[in-house]
Amino acid sequence: MGGQYPGRPWYVSVPAMLMSCVLVLPVFTWLRLRSGSVVPAVIGHAFISSVSVTMVKEFADPEAALDPLHMGLSGWPGWVVMAAFVAFLALTGRLRPASGDTA
């Protein structure tokens, strides 16, 4: 039920989580297509799931209230960055499989 956004009602946290997933999926797809392996996408998922959250906590003011909806890759600033990167990938044709791929 959108547990990545504690203190938020489900009707905010669930759409926020869906937005994060929809925006990161093309990045994982690109990693898979460009590498020919699932390993880069798995590492990317692990990074987003753990390291990116920890980094926000490490760089934030220890006294500040942390609100995941307003920071990191799972918040609106991350959505803007991911949307720009996905737009770049789409506009440059990098989301298309290489010729000869049948996956």
Question: Could you name the key traits of this structure?
Answer:
103 residues; mainly alpha
Description:
With 103 residues, the chain is mainly α. It is built from three helices and no strands. Helix content is 61%, strand content 0%. Helix 1 packs parallel to helix 3. It is elongated, with a radius of gyration of 15 Å. 11% of the residues are buried.
Q: Total helix count? A: 3
The structural class is: mainly alpha
Radius of gyration: 15 Å
Q: Tell me the domain tally.
A: 1
Mean pLDDT, to the nearest integer, reads: 85
- H and E string: HHH
Largest sheet: none
**What is the number of strand segments?**
0
3D shape: elongated
How much of the polypeptide forms β-strand, as a percent range? under 5%
Poorly predicted runs are none
Helix content: 55-70%
Terminal Cα span = 33 Å
Summary?
The protein starts with 9 loop residues before the first helix and ends in a 12-residue tail after the last helix.
SSE arrangement:
Elements: H1 10-35, H2 39-59, H3 76-91
Helix pairs in contact: 1-2, 1-3
